[in-house]
Amino acid sequence: MHTVWKGSISFGLVNIPVKLHTATENKDIKLRQLHKECHTPISYKKVCEGCNQEVKEEDIVKAYEYAKNKFVVLDEEELENLRKENEEKAVEIIDFVKLQEIDPIYFERTYFLSPDTTGGKAYTLLRKTLEESGKIGVAKITIRSKEQLAIVRVYQDALVMEIIHFPDEVRSVSDVPNIPSEQAVVQKELDTALMLVEQLTTEFDPEKYTDEYRTALMELIEEKKATNTISTSDKRPLPDNVTDLMSALQASLDKTKKPSPRKRATKTKKNA
How many Å apart are CA 240 and CA 251, to the nearest integer? Predict the structure, then answer.
């Protein structure tokens, strides 16, 4: 499992060297965008709006727009110094609270925590302490240059770190439009609704819930593959970089070769 962060967690005088691993993954099916006429993949270039020219990576700087078209430019050295100041700090558990006291709206992303080479004993101690106390730890951690608020809790036999939003990142309910004010509810309707809830109440089993759209989309893709409705494009853009001479020579050589006979794939009328 890939390590996304390496450091230590401390509570009191106990220091635990740990590694952070992403606990969840995005299973969305990624679809490419193709040119409708020739089915060549679409690419995107970084273009300066003022010069109307393509900009190279080394010519881009980062800035904060504090007013319309007014920027404070931050050079990479300044940002790197800030990153080092924060990322080298150990994660300190500053409070212990009950999990039930944190509304789910605060939760953002989950990571598994594993002990580093010498951290097994202290890791076990923290896990046992959280289990016995029924509490979770509140801490701060810097990941990818962003300081995060987090909680540490026990999940099965592992410690997990839940990244949670800071209070000012959660929008106020008062900003939500058209929320109805308190209104009288007919008792008979309420009783019927409560009866329905009772009938549908069960123990939570995550295995029973599946992404039906993703399943149907994959079935459609496999069906199109099986019926030979795959679209291909013979167009390949040649590199315009002079330094990539070998690739250009090889592409030219390949272009002069006689193509081997093969069945042309038919184009679909619809894109998946």
Answer: 12
Q: Annotate 4-66 with DSSP letters as a single string.
A: -EEEEEEETTEEEEEEEEE-----PPP---B-TTT-PBP----B-TTT--B--GGG--EEEEE
Domain boundaries, the chain: 1-28+64-168+210-235
Q: Determine the Cα–Cα distance for residues 6 and 267; give it in Å rounded to an integer.
A: 49
Tokens, residue 126: 């923290």
Please give the Cα distance from 210 to 269 (Å, whole number). Answer: 30
Q: For residue range 36-61, list pLDDT tens digits in order.
A: 888 888 888 888 988 888 898 888 88
Fold of 1-28+64-168+210-235: Ku70; Chain: A; Domain 2 (2.40.290)
Note if the pTM is more than 0.85: no
